[in-house]
Description:
Organism: Neptunomonas antarctica
Largest sheet: 8 strands, mixed
Pfam family, one: ABC_tran
Family: Belongs to the ABC transporter superfamily.
Subcellular location: Cell inner membrane
Membrane topology: Peripheral membrane protein
Radius of gyration: 21 Å
Structural class: alpha/beta
CATH class of the largest domain: Alpha Beta
Amino acid sequence: MPLLEVSNLEVCFGLRSGAVKALRDVSFTLERGERLGVVGESGAGKSVLGFSILNLLSRPGHISAGSVRFEGKDLATLAPEELRSIRGNRISMIFQDPMMTLNPVLTIGVQMVECLKAHRKISTKDATYIALQKLKQVQMPSPETRLEQYPHELSGGMRQRIVIAIGLLLDPDIIIADEPTTALDVTIQAEIMDLMLNLCEQNNVALILITHDLGVVSQVSQRMLVMYAGRIIEQGPTKEIINDAQHPYTQGLMNALPQMAIPGQKLNQIKGTMPPLQRIPKGCSFNPRCEYVLEVCKHNLPAFTQSGNCQVACHLVAELNQEKLLVKEV
């Protein structure tokens, strides 16, 4: 049994103009200790997926179909008390902005101790000792001093290390990291990602890394999901997708990387923009932006087709695979 199994997940947001689907038929699994990357443009549904796993959606957002099973338990149907024993304890989330995560009027030590005491029967002395050890684990300089400081007294990189340390406090089985390095400079980004990678490997913690940075995903994750307009359009081993992307959207993301451009010329980009949830195109949602669009793409939603070790939701890939089979039979 997988550690986490998401099956046919659908998330809706009720608006005055009617309900819109932010996630559509999302399915994947996560094994213990596995590192999974989730990539796509802004508005693809990456963060909604992260919040949905922990059932942290605020109204009018809600899970309208499908299931999120952790060790066989459907998190979407658990009672609040039972969900609380898993959220933050067995599954931790590292949010995009540490200043939004940390309480500005409490010291780092108080916040870490409160987190431990909320989930465990433990003395303040023992909780402080564990907090100190976790700060050392994330290579925080002068950890004893940091426990007495407030978030605003620390640099962005330090705050992010503290958020990671809080995520590790209760020895979780899964960490969901939502754009954990967005607000940091490139050098600190590399340090934080190396730190997270080492911590996950040492503690056999599964990681779901949500990001728009394909470079980070290629270095950290073993498997990846590519999302577009609330749906997974390609998934498989990271190296295979990076080296031979099948879906035109994934190819566009790869070509848009700065290192793919010719020096002195404009960067490559995918034409058009992500469609709003109220106006998702019929058929393949990427069809208005796709340079390989077929007539069937405008009317029929593509099913997943196997391509190597990857699954791709694309009519063109399905047709090419069918042609290859016919050639082999001849």
